[in-house]
Design a protein that fits this description.
This protein has 290 residues and is an alpha+beta fold. The protein has 10 helices and 4 strands. It starts with 5 loop residues before the first strand and ends with a helix.
C-alpha cells in the first residue's frame, strides 16, 4: 500500500552547473502530472513523464528540474583575444590622431567586461542522461516515502476495520432480541388502551410476524461482514487499491444505512451511528491511498 503523498530530491553536476530534480505529490483521484523544465530542455518532457508514470498511478505529481550555477560557473569567462584586438585598435586610432594612449587598469576592466563571453547553457543532448539519472534517484526517495507513509496508513486502517467488525457483531447480537421486545411493547400498549389480547391471538402473531419481516437484518449483516472481510484483504494487497477500496466503502455505507433504517431499536441505532462515524474516518484515510 502506498500513500499519495511523497517527496524525493536528487542533485547532479553538469559541467559548471548543478542540476536539481524534485518530485512531490498530493492526493488526486487520477494521475495529474506537471513537469517544469528549463526552456531549452522542454523536449525532454515526454521522457520525464514516461519515467514518472512507471512509478506512480494516482496523485497530483509535480516534477521540477532546475539548473543553477556553481562556483566555477560564477567565475568570469574572458575573451582575451577580443580584449587584445580592441586595445590594438585603440592604440592605432590614438597614434593616427596624435593622441597619447595609456591603457589603465580601469580601461582594461571596461573592455574585458564588454568582451566577456556568456556561459554556454548545456545542450539537450548533454543534459538528457544527467536529467534522467537524477530523476530516477529522486523517484527512489519519492517512492520510499510513499511506501513508508502507506505502511502507517495500512496499520491505522486495519485497526479501524477491526473496530467496524466489533460494531457489526454488537448489532448482530442485539438483532434477535428486537422482535421479543417489540411483542412485549405491543402487548403493553394494548393493555394500556384497554384492549388486552392473548399473546397467542392470531392478530398479535400476524403483527409481530410483519414486524419481524420488516426489521430482519440477517441479509444486511451477511453482506456487511463479507464487505468488511474483502476490504481487510484488499488493504493487505500490493499495488493500487484506492479505487476499489472506495467502491467497497460505498457498499459498506449502503448496508449500514439500510440497517439503521430497518432496526427500530435504540441500541442498534446507536451502534449504527458509531459504525458510520468510524466508517467516515476510514473514508478520509482512503482518500490518501494510491
Amino acid at each position: 500500500m502506498n500513500s499519495m503523498t511523497g517527496y524525493g530530491r536528487a542533485n547532479a553536476p553538469l559541467g559548471s552547473y548543478t542540476l536539481t530534480v524534485q518530485v512531490s505529490s498530493v492526493n488526486r483521484k487520477t494521475l495529474d502530472l506537471m513537469v517544469a523544465l528549463p526552456h531549452d530542455w522542454e523536449s525532454l518532457e515526454p521522457g520525464v513523464a514516461a519515467e514518472v508514470r512507471q512509478a506512480v498511478v494516482r496523485g497530483k505529481v509535480h516534477v521540477d528540474v532546475e539548473l543553477t550555477g556553481g562556483a566555477a560557473a560564477a567565475e568570469a569567462t574572458w575573451n582575451e583575444e577580443g580584449v587584445t584586438q580592441t586595445l590594438t585598435r585603440l592604440r592605432a586610432l590614438a597614434a593616427k590622431q596624435g593622441v597619447s594612449f595609456d591603457a589603465t587598469a580601469e580601461l582594461l576592466w571596461q573592455i574585458a567586461s564588454a568582451e566577456r563571453q556568456p556561459r554556454q547553457f548545456p545542450t539537450v543532448a548533454a543534459g538528457q542522461p544527467v536529467v534522467m539519472a537524477a530523476l530516477k534517484e529522486a523517484l527512489q526517495g519519492f517512492v520510499a516515502m510513499r511506501s513508508t507513509e502507506g505502511a502507517a496508513l495500512q496499520a491505522d486502517l486495519l485497526a479501524r476495520v477491526t473496530a467496524l467488525k466489533r460494531q457489526v457483531e454488537t448489532i448482530a447480537a442485539r438483532a434477535p432480541l428486537v422482535p421479543g421486545l417489540y411483542r412485549d411493547l405491543l402487548l403493553k400498549r394494548l393493555r394500556e388502551a384497554g384492549l388486552a389480547l392473548d399473546p397467542g391471538d392470531e392478530r398479535v402473531l400476524k403483527e409481530i410476524a410483519l414486524f419481524v419481516d420488516r426489521c430482519d437484518l440477517s441479509e444486511e449483516l451477511t453482506r456487511l461482514r463479507s464487505h468488511l472481510e474483502q476490504f481487510g484483504q484488499l488493504l493487505r494487497t500490493e499495488g493500487e487499491i484506492g479505487r476499489k477500496a472506495e467502491f467497497i466503502l460505498q457498499e459498506i455505507s449502503r448496508e449500514s444505512h439500510t440497517i439503521g433504517s430497518k432496526a427500530n431499536d435504540l441500541a442498534i441505532a446507536k451502534a449504527v451511528i458509531e459504525f458510520k462515524n468510524e466508517l467516515e474516518r476510514v473514508r478520509e484515510q482512503i482518500a490518501n491511498i494510491e
